[in-house]
Specification:
It contains four helices and no strands. The protein is mainly α and about 80 residues long.
């Protein structure tokens, strides 16, 4: 967050989307009977995959449009 908002000056409103999808994947996998550590690892991998997809799609956006795009991702996942 410090690197992105502090040094680069980009606003990212999608942090909650990454945390939410990671928690959701963790909850589903532990409810399915997987160990908690494996569920947490799966949650991290799903959040990383979403972050990679969002970064790949928005890497050429300007700062204002990046904020709008990440807000849209967070609202879609909400």
């Amino acid at each position: 967050l410090n690197l992105q908002a502090g040094y680069a000056g980009l606003l990212n409103f999608g942090h909650i989307a990454f945390a939410g999808i990671g928690a959701y994947a963790t909850g589903i996998s532990t409810a399915a009977g997987y160990p908690a550590v494996a569920g947490a690892a799966l949650g991290v991998l799903v959040a990383v995959a979403l972050g990679w997809c969002v970064a790949r799609l928005g890497r050429q956006l300007g700062a204002d449009y990046w904020g709008i795009a990440t807000l849209a991702i967070a609202e879609i996942l909400r």
